[in-house]
């Protein structure tokens, strides 16, 4: 940038709204607007993919003898991260709309307990699934109403809901795991396979597919992005921003309840601990994937890759023989590095 | 140094001696003998190639209230920023108390005794008055803040100002007028002897204005000089001793308030700047005011800011709303667009009564608004031009549940060519465009609706050319006229009266939330007449 245009720019930044002389100076000396291509091909947008490839190659080389590249090991990574991927898709919408949902892990746990207990008492998987979805819808309606209508910050509302949902799950199950014997349910949610693919992967792929289309190709998705980018301007453009916020939080909770069923199906038990701490993994995955924490943009595929990336690192560290304490330290460091690298100047 | 052409006053012998005003006991004369508090001569400043200041002279005597006037973009803010050390001048001489100075930082300016009362307060609402006054330089004892000393000093300053505020009160519990007093106290606590006040009454309710004026009188008695920036003639006559008008970066008029007729001041502010080649001819649209109006408003009332406002706008007509900030102009627009609540009144569109609960209702009915604050209300700055253009039309671009991007691209391409924005800018982040191009994007996102079969019936533009250069200004206003000629009803709100005169068929002058006067095009002799009507000077 030339000295001249820098001067003009600083003048622009300092100018008060009424002082259009400065803006005029800005108009005249601004360099020609950059070609769009250069704006699009910013490597930072692809940081997560590059990081993923690099780490994958490193593990493939150094952990070869530990069986990193075995099909079984790779499927393991996919299975372990699939549930986070599902929640991260909904989480992308939440963060893109400049909100946050901290209650998803607890909602997943509560949903797993409710599903298991309902199936145990009614013997019907279908009623169990409806009950699980009901949990998600109920929590989502409360979160959405408090945030969109009463304008309480989502951080506080969902933090409180994290405690409430977690507490209800513990209370209902009396801290005990509730086994699920219905194989139709466990096969559909997480234990079974469709052809060569574990059902968990089908669920994850489905979530990503739907998420990509809804965010990029529907009116709702684009209104979510506009609301997150500038809620006032979105409102002045006819977007019902409160309604958008409500739906984003509702869907997040419902998707969390589905994630709870995936835990329940995969582990053939409903248990209040399922999902504990997942909200943090989801936020990390979404931000790693290139979605701005301040809202306005969203990358569903990036979030999914971010989630798998975290699982990949976990797996590699386990194979390398580190213990749990070392794993979480290294995970934390990697997340900080990745987010710092992806940060736009 | 250039000598301004139009001025009969600039560089005339600076008035010496007694205060020309007849306010008893407020004479600045005893102090006027020393060097002036501020003297700026031949000050120039350019940003890049663009010269904002081309030779400004300003002399403020000690203990004097000096009004600084000028239209938008005249250079007032830049001049004041030089005095505050935010910008440095390229040429000319700046003296404070007879000493030549060249401030390189706001810190230098504060040390020289220059204080600023910001229009947007630089205060923290959750802290007490005293803590705000001493923010960042709290008195300390044993490494801890010394609250007792802070409160004592604050009380001293507030007493000196004659302000009845308990310094321990949390700011957010006080009305806005007191915020301003706190802001002034903050400046005084830094031993400011020259106070710059930028539109200090803009945010004040009417009953608090007189309180501010008596404070200014009191400051003058304490030998403090005030540079008072305002557009309101009545206020200047009440409070100021002398005035200086700048236009296009030059001083065009200076003199004692009592000796300069207000018509003369207005003429100097306005100058002869016109929008080149733009002239509202006879409305082309066949329908005139004799036919049924497109938009009718009856008894519109919203809080205290809009009172019983009624008017009609016909198809193809451009209605101008003139008035000072706070006169209710923006509030009327926001009520019609569903942003602000209507307490009473009715809106009719094409004869049908309309209930507007939110912007979506307004848009669906065909009322659209180009809002006052482009960056905050008009655009999602971080998104591309394309995304912004399509935002209001998303619902109509569907193919089933999905958006038809091909149709979106076609719509954008049509808008871009019509607006003369380069098509390569479509994927550009809108925040990178110039102010003028940004405004074109805001207007075109509404025009986009007509490509999806929902042409706006009423287009409201609130300060559409704020911060826009003159060439683009003309383009934008020409565009507005073209839209009028398609049969839409247009409402233009503007502080720039020349702009209203060049496009409006009729102008409503608003004052204190009411329609004060309705002026037909043929009733308005010239811009000065309109300016006088807006100012309330007869």
TrEMBL record, chain A:
It is found in: Cell membrane. Residues 1-32 are annotated as: Disordered. CDD domains: TM_PBP1_transp_AraH_like. The keyword Signal does not apply. The keyword Metal-binding does not apply. It comes from the Bacteria. The chain crosses the membrane at residues 46-63, 75-95, 102-120, 126-148, 155-174, 194-215, 244-264, 276-294, 301-318, 324-342. Residues 1-18 have a biased composition (Polar residues). Its main location: membrane. This is ABC transporter permease. It comes from Nocardioides potassii.
